[in-house]
Amino acid sequence: MRCSCSKSNYLVQKIFFFKLENKINILNCNLSTIFTFWAAHNKIFKYCLLILLFPQILSAQFYFFGRNKVQYEKFNWKVLKTEHFNIYYYDDFEQIAKIGAQFAEEAFDEYKVKFNHYVTTKIPLIFYNTHIHFQQTNITPSFIPEGVGGFFEFMKGRVVIPYLGSLSSFKHVIRHELVHVFMTNKIFNILRDHRIETERMPPLWFVEGLAEYWSFDWDTQSEMVMRDFVLNNFFIPLQDLDAADGYIIYKEGQSFLEFVSKNYGEEKILQLMENFWRFSSFKENIEFTLGETFNEIGNKWYYSLQQKYFPLLQNNYPHFIKSKKLTEFGFNFEPRFYDNNGKKEIYFIGNHNGYSSVFKMKYDIESEAMQNSEVIIEGERESKFEAFHLLEKTLDVSKDGKIAFVTKSLYSDVIHIYSIKENKIIRTLRFNDLIANGTQTSLISIRSPSFSSDGKLLLFTAADKKGYTDIFIYNFEEDKLLRITDDYYSDIDPIFNKDNSKIIFASDRTAGEYQQKYNLFEYDLKSNSIYYLTYVNANISSPQFNPDYTELYFNCDYDGTYNIWKMNYANNQNEIEQVTKFLTSVYSFTFANDSTIITSAFEKYSFQFYNLTLNKNSFYSSVQFDLIKSRNLWLAKEIVIPSEYDKLKYQNEYTLDYAVGQLSTDPIYGSRGGALFSLSDLLGDDRYIFYVYNTAEVQSEILKNFNVAISRISLKRRTNFGYGIFHYAGRRYDITESDEFFYERVFGGYLELHYPFSSFQRIEADVSIANSDKELFGDIISRKSLLVSNSLSFVHDNSIWSSTGPIDGSRFRILLGYTSDVKYSNVNYYSFIIDYRKYYRLGLRSAIATRAALFVNHGKEARRYFAGGSWDLRGWPRWSIRGQKLWLSSLELRFPLIDKIQVNFPFLGLSFFNIRGALFFDAGSAWDKSYKETLGSIGFGFRINLFNAIALRYDIGKKIENNFNRFQPKLFYQFFFGWDF
Amino acid sequence: MIKNFYSDDSGIFMFGKIPQRNFYEDLSISDSLELLWKAETNGSQSNTSIIINNDFLFVSDLSGRIYGFNIKSGKSIGYYKFSGSIAAAPIINKLRIYFAVNLKSENYSLFVMKDINNAKTLSETKIKGSINSEMLKLNDGIVVLSDRGELIKFNYAGIKIWSVETKTSTHSITASDGNIVIFGNDNGELFFVSSSEGKILFREKISDYSINGITIDNHNAYVCDSSGKLISFNIQTKKINWIFNSKANIVSIPVFNSENIFIGNLSGKIFSIDKNNGKLKWSINTRGVINSTPLLLKNFLIQPDFNKKIYFINPENGVIKKTLKYDTRIKLSPVFYDGYIFLGADRGQIFAYKTFRKNYDETL
Predict the structure, then answer these.
(1) ipTM here
(2) pTM of the predicted protein model
(3) CB–CB contact B289 A265 (8 Å)
(4) Pick from A666, A732, A671: which is nearest to A696 by CA?
(5) Whether A448 contacts A462, CB under 8 Å
(6) For a Cys staple, B209 with which of A488, A764, A835, B225, CB 3.0–4.6 Å?
(7) A197 to chain B: closest CA residue
(8) B242-249 long-range contacts, Cβ below 8 Å, gap at least 24?
């Protein structure tokens, strides 16, 4: 949430506040300006809107910045209306959408029984054909990280799911999210039936654990993670699960519910929901429902896991026992060995420097190799290398010294070809609207690049607009793309055989007894035929030939977790042999020589490299299989829809996002009231905001004090826009002018355009026209103006955040603006803003942050900027430094202070996480005509992130005045909230 | 408090009308209904039913209230309020009303006896766990089953006569032929307990799943489990007659006439089964969720569907003759009394319909 300064969010908040401001100097729209408005103009709504817009206001400090959620694509949305769902999909995704609809209807029928519940309204299910398109959704304003496989949005009950290339994982995610739908609907109804407040929910570990437990069977990944947690002391006891988050709670929650089902009865899980109304604490609910104390239950669960996993130590091995650990930090994937003229090197994807990047390390198992690893390509800083898809297979090295690696770049993945000899990228391949096999093809997400032995061909898998994940060959010499497979089966990890005549790959096209298991297949490029290589009741991935191409090695989960197995490729005997017997999974591997493998393995909640010496003459076990049992194909069932409900074009369906109204009376301002509400369409692309209130103190002034604003914001296209009209009237107090009270009536309109170049950069243009009629109190002076304001800004932001603020990257805004009274010539000035912030990372969790900013309004009746307070010149009274020109500069050391502090009262325990420290130095000044003095402050502070929604800051320091000649005698103490600059 | 409340033993005093839990009325009605009145309670109801004493209808709600309504006008005559939830239907005996409250923030429940005339609480007894199972009204007392598996008998003075601890959790209903009380538990065990002495006469595992609804038909008990099995069990020989598998959890109670037995399950399917041999006569799939016990008349099986509907089904062939659609989920089992049918929907809505004789356009 804290990094969710997305374009949509940004634009919504900016336009919203702008409209409320109704000011002539929209160019001064920093947070202080916003609060000036709140303080002076809008007493009625101040509190309710502060609450309502809390996240926006919090991030409004970064209002100037924020990354962009770019709508690269123009999606032609369609709707499938099934019995229980409205399914939204677009373009060529119809077939997979119909399969997904079938999954959803089947899940609904199952869950209505499991939950003893019926969701009576149609559930909106929104499908994206790839994760890259999913990341463009406007249904949530937040940025969606790589690992998110779908989400359920509580407010409107929308389920949003990307297709990731595998029908089985698609089914899993649909079922997972529908468990959320049923659970939240059931809990809501239980609470409402009992007339209890409906905002409560069970803890996250239960919510996610249930979604996992009831959506699929215990699988290899679950097994791998739980083995690791229990055997390597990462296990979080039941008593502490409420405070945990991340992937660990999914698996531990799932494991706990499995334990409950086995030991207390499956019906207890539903009873935990049905008894939810009874206790305010979920712990008490568990104790009541299961009939034992929380500690007893937690201890029994842990004991059951120990019973399950400790015996594995007898015959299975940790990676660090059977192989030598090569790396220590970060996550490291896809090791590829390369002999660089005698220098042994490993190229890989990792993130130990804080960014996912391509690294090189010396392969020398006797030295501390990792410490000498070198960044080849640093990701996440520019649009070419926006994301490296950690956890996916995205890198290969050819024998002639080329690295192929995949990154997300703008609207799709691309493959970069990097020359090791030339030490640069020599080519970037993007497959957009290319002809492959005579058909126009656009490839969106790409995985598993693999060179042919001569380096002239590149194999890879890619997802197209239909969502199919298929195998492609790119021919470097002919610049041609060849599509090998074209169906909805998931084909992964292709490699060439020795003479490049065949492709070996893993696929879920396995039919018959082991349907949808990932087995190995062989594609004959001469006959264009596919043959089974294996037929086992297991999932296989990452095939690799040994150096002489006689044996095929691969990962296989036959014994419960992914280990390395092999088969004799030269003389296939329908048998696979187990090469390793590790407790936790091998993720990927590469041959360093014919007897040594470098693995990327999961252990201690981390992916690290290990050097494994093969014993070629022995194996742990073998499995024989019979290819005769295999069948040709399985077919996925598609839902059958009556023709009148099939493929309907999506029409904007607007529903209420929020509505708030208030009527208040106070002795100074009298009675006043109003309302704010917002509508948006189902896809979140189009939004209307209505705002109306009245500040009249007597009936005769109702019309005179009527305030209304209507805005529309469109996020549907790459260029976002907003426009609207407003009318505001009432008594005002302007903090930028000392003690200036006035009555003002202003009406007008605005238009704002944002064009993002990439996630990191955008250009913004604003224009507004406002007719202002102002009467200053006391002096009985009337001033009219017809103000036209324009501004043009360039914004850059590639910062990376820790818990309380950015710690890496940079961000800046340059703004030029002009405001003029085109009718009465009362106002005429230009504006210039440059605000630059740069973060120098010192370690994973510490950084030096710098800021330099200059704000200028110059001309007739130019407005003032102001500073002072926790967000700029710390220690100085808030907004006490005012002027038409203002400069600010800050230097801050950010560092971790306390990771966890636990306070236990007799009746309550509280834990605080991620307390951060800061040493800071601020300087700045503001003036109108002539420069006054330079002010500053120096000190240290504490920051803490609460619920990922707010950062609390406490600063202690000394103010510096008189052009830096004198420290003020006393310390200042300042407490406030807001993210670090 | 209902002044001048009287009782002449005319009414429906417990869920299922009689201790055997019989939901059958030996009459036919036409499929035209006239909505007489609609009333609301504060909270919603569980899958229970209203009860009736003469002119008054009583219904519990999940926000801890027992409401009284005039059955002719639907006018509320007030309610008792507790901090918690009342899931099971109350029981009326003479001038007293008995009910169980699942207390909020407590791990026990209260068995309460009140005087209807003066609203005074005459007794309160703590019971461990929740009382979600429908209570049983016998000639000499009331039987209550807690979810902790404790079966308790109170006399009509509210005094505990005996209790049986089975020490296994249960979500079964109780039924009785007058001599024994039958119930099951979550381990699939079936219990016979002497209603006079509170002794366990029979305890045997008849299912791998939890036992839910039970009804008694002469010397047979029909028992449903959470896997969807309907088990016909001979009370005298203590043997299973036959098993029918509906393949989805049955939480409602089977109903029967002279030939067939009818069940609905959570997958929305309704079945008619031959009582003698357990063979399927017909089945329909409503696509909804059947979790309320239906009302069986001679010519209609009136079956609520959680998916906002009530079906009027021909019990002979399973043809749905009429469907009533509602704005909210249907919760209560329909009750027929004195020519009226009483239904209940989500958010505490109670409906009273006037019925008409079949083939005659006159009020019953």
Answers:
(1) 0.95
(2) 0.90
(3) no
(4) A671
(5) no
(6) B225
(7) B63
(8) B242/B277, B242/B278, B243/B278, B244/B271, B244/B273, B244/B278, B244/B280, B246/B271, B248/A113, B249/A113, B249/A116, B249/B212
